[in-house]
C-alpha cells in the first residue's frame, strides 16, 4: 500500500517495534526499554506510538502521539516525542544556558559549539527537554513548532539561572 492510499483511507499500519527503537538507539542512544509498553504504527510518512493495546478495526484520524516524521532523510523526531523520551538520550544532546534557551524557544538559530553529530539533537535546559534542534557545523536551528514558540517580548520572563 502506498503512503498516498494509506493517508486517504486513514489506515494505520502496525510496525515492528524493533525497527523504530533501533532508529532512536542509533541516533540518541535511547534504549528500547524506554519504549516498553508502546506499539508503533505508520500512517503515510509519520510514525505514531500508542499504549500497548489492541485497536478495533476502525478508520482513525490519529492514534496516540506522532513521534517521527519520515518524509525526509534523515527522519525527524517530533518535539512531543522528545519531551517524553528525550530524557533517556545520552548521545546527540545539547544543554543550553538561560540565554541560549530563550533564543531556542523563540524559534531562532544560534551558534553553539558541540561534539554532536550533524543532524537532529535533543535540546535541554536545566535537565528538562525543550525539544528538537537541528545541529550543523556549529549552528543550532530550533525545530520548535511555530505554535509553541515564545513571543519575542514577554513581561516577567526573566528568571535566574
Strand order of the largest sheet: 1-2-3-4-5
Overall geometry comes to: globular
Total of DSSP H or I helical runs spanning 4+ residues: 4
Distance N to C terminus: 51 Å
Mean pLDDT: 87
Task: Assess the beta-strand content as a share of residues.
Answer: 25-35%
The whole-angstrom Rg is 17 Å
Q: How many E-type strands?
A: 10
What order do the SSEs take from the amino end to the carboxyl end, as H and E? Answer: HEHEEEEHEHEEEE
Largest sheet: 5 strands, antiparallel
Helix amount, in percent? 10-25%
Uncertain spans:
none
Helix-strand makeup class: alpha+beta
How many domains would you count in the coordinates? 2
Question: Could you describe the 3D structure shown?
Answer:
The protein is of the alpha+beta class. It folds into 2 domains: 3-85; 92-148, Archaeosine Trna-guanine Transglycosylase, Chain: A, domain 4. The chain is 21% helix and 30% strand. The protein starts with a helix and ends in a 19-residue tail after the last strand. The model has no long low-confidence stretch (mean pLDDT 87).
Amino acid at each position: 500500500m502506498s503512503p498516498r492510499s494509506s493517508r486517504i483511507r486513514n489506515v494505520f499500519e502496525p510496525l515492528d517495534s524493533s525497527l523504530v527503537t533501533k532508529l532512536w538507539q542509533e541516533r540518541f542512544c535511547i534504549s528500547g526499554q524506554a519504549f516498553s509498553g508502546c506499539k508503533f504504527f505508520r500512517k503515510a510518512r509519520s510514525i505514531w506510538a500508542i499504549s500497548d493495546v489492541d485497536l478495533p478495526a476502525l478508520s482513525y484520524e490519529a492514534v496516540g502521539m506522532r513521534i517521527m516524521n519520515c518524509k525526509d532523510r534523515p527522519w525527524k523526531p517530533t518535539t512531543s516525542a522528545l519531551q517524553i523520551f528525550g530524557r533517556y538520550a545520552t548521545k546527540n544532546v545539547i544543554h543550553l544556558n538561560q540565554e541560549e534557551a530563550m533564543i531556542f524557544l523563540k524559534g531562532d538559530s544560534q551558534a553553539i559549539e558541540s561534539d554532536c553529530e550533524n543532524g537532529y539533537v535533543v535540546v535541554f535546559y536545566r535537565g528538562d527537554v525543550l525539544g528538537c534542534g537541528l545541529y550543523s557545523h556549529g549552528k543550532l536551528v530550533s525545530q520548535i513548532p511555530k505554535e509553541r514558540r515564545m513571543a519575542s517580548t514577554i513581561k516577567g520572563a526573566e528568571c535566574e539561572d
